[in-house]
User: What shape does this take?
Amino acid sequence: MHKRLKKFITLSALAITLTSAASILLITNSQNVAHASTRQQAVDDITDQLFKNLHPQLGGRKLRSHEYRYIQEWQAIWKVVNQAGVIWTNQNTKTCLPEWSFPGGEALQERLADAVFYSRYPGRNGAAISPNERSAIREWLNIKNSMWVTAYC
Assistant: This one.
């Protein structure tokens, strides 16, 4: 029990340090991603986690075929995660997004926020949000702040 408590305290301190530094987005601890049987499953699992963060009101339920907006957002997230390059080995020893596990991973978080935001507003054609569009800025920041994953690396 002593080892467990020590490990918990150490991991908690590490998580607090990493969170306050805001430079590392991927923290180790999720069995879903760690035990993905294929690279494709790892991409899907990570996408599911990000989508659940973005839409906690859905309670992790499966999307219905008529929920086009949600489906478009999930697909936008999937595309970025897939391009980010999930490392997967057949022995299930590594499944992670290395870009997220080191300082500078914020760029991936921003790409994910862009993907979701522009899937919601396709008419913008990727045009940058201007400083006077405060509600759009708030929405983009909320999306960005939900783009974190716990995964086993």
